[in-house]
Write a structure and sequence with these properties.
Elements (H helix, E strand, L loop, with lengths): L12 H6 L1 H14 L6 H14 L3 E5 L2 H11 L7 E4 L6 H8 L3 E4 L22 E5 L10 H11 L2 E5 L7 E2 L2 E2 L6 E5 L13 E5 L2 H11 L20 H10 L3 H19 L5 E2 L7 E2 L5 E5 L4 H10 L26 H9 E4 L7 H14 L2
Parallel strand pairs: 2-3, 2-4, 4-5, 5-8
Antiparallel strand pairs: 1-9, 6-7, 6-11, 8-9, 10-12, 12-13
This protein binds pyridoxal-5'-phosphate.
């Protein structure tokens, strides 16, 4: 069956080829400068992102996971505090909460957007609740207005996990720039991806930014004057230089993803047993993933069929966080997240995905669901 070329989940080669000369120049300038740690490209990239997102401060870090850990600590969250979040995300979202000694409190998701069901949050707020961490899953905004309203009323901090949503919007505002702080990942497969690990915390609050800067260099703002235990979580200069080359293209890349998503909708809207992603009226979806739902219990068989036809897909995520061994003793029942974990399937998508590849994905899916 593998007679045709394989279709990957994501193909970075068109972007690398398009930017080849600029990427090489960026690499070489870092090599020549020898300033591999906190070189000028790191500060320049911070300034570029702050401008793009319209935030006052951007702190370049080593990963999205560190952005969550450092973001929570910089917002004053600590041991014993309860933090409300979604069970339908990458583990790092809850892991960061646990790593600082706080307790993740899972609230079920909205079955259409796969993000926090905002109608279920308030009943989980206790006197120990200190923060909400919404995730903009797959690049679709969480419904931020009700989240901010609850946070205001109950005096909670809001840290947006924007790992999958760079450039996405909520009611015209850039994701990550809406709550008290926003955490970003530049893992290579993200909409804005480095060529290694990298992340960032953004905020309008000067004291949060200062604490994040302190935490990223071993709890010190002045070398060898360590005030608190922190981390070694600086963004590599090489990664910052690469991200500087890529940032000016993010709008075009996200537009490309939206074009691919629109083409999938045209190709797939009438396939029985297939539920396509929605874009809520408040959202500008940037399709980090194009995630469909395959109902009637056939997801795994369909994924196998696609694999046999040379088409890569992925299940984000097969186990909701509350069902992972680390949290299963908490005995949550979160039916919408559990059902999503059994039904979702992310199809190949990248900004330059050719129409023929999309047509092949669609016709194979149509055949498998017949
Ligand atoms: C929703 C979400 N949160 C956090 C992370 C962690 O980011 P990183 O891999 O850069 O540590 C990721 C991605 O890996 C993610 O998808």
């Amino acid at each position: 069956m593998m007679s045709q070329n394989a279709i990957p989940l994501l193909d970075l080669t068109p972007e690398i080829e398009m930017l080849w000369d600029e990427l090489n120049a960026a690499f070489q300038s870092v090599l020549r400068s020898g300033r591999f740690i906190m070189g000028p490209q790191v500060h320049a990239f911070e300034a570029q992102v702050a401008e793009y997102l319209n935030v006052k401060h951007a702190v370049a870090l080593n990963s999205g996971t560190d952005a969550l850990v450092i973001g929570l600590r910089a917002l004053g969250i600590g041991p014993g505090d309860e933090v409300i979040t979604t069970p339908f995300s990458f583990f790092a979202t809850a892991e960061a909460i646990s790593l600082i000694g706080a307790v993740p409190v899972f609230v079920d998701i909205d079955a259409q957007t796969y993000n926090l069901d905002v109608t279920l949050i308030e009943e989980k707020i206790t006197p120990r609740t200190r923060a909400i961490v919404p995730v903009h899953l797959y690049g679709h905004a969480a419904d931020m207005a009700p989240i901010l309203e609850l946070a205001e009323r109950h005096n909670l901090k809001v840290l947006e996990d924007t790992a999958q949503g760079f450039g996405g919007e909520y009611r015209g505002l850039k994701l990550g720039a809406i709550g008290d702080a926003g955490a970003f990942s530049f893992f290579p497969s993200k909409n804005l991806g480095a060529y290694g690990d990298a992340g960032m915390l953004v905020t309008d609050d000067g004291s949060v930014a200062e604490m994040a800067r302190k935490l990223r260099t071993h709890g010190s703002l002045k070398k060898y004057h360590n005030e608190i235990p922190g981390y070694n979580s600086r963004m590599d200069t090489l990664q910052a230089a690469i991200l500087q080359v890529k940032l000016p293209h993010i709008q075009a890349f996200n537009d490309g993803r939206r074009r691919v998503a629109a083409a999938y909708r045209d190709l797939l809207h009438d396939v029985p047993g297939l539920v396509l992603p929605v874009e809520a009226s408040y959202a500008c979806h940037v399709y980090h993933q194009y995630t469909v739902r395959i109902t009637i219990g056939r997801r795994d068989a369909v994924q196998r069929g696609l694999r046999e036809a040379g088409i890569a897909t992925q299940v984000y995520y097969p186990v909701p966080l509350h069902r992972l061994p680390v949290y299963s003793a908490l005995n949550y029942r979160l039916p919408a997240a559990e059902q999503a974990a059994e039904e979702v399937l992310s199809l190949p998508i990248w900004p330059q995905m050719p129409a023929e590849a999309q047509e092949r994905v669609a016709s194979t899916l149509r055949m498998l669901l017949r």
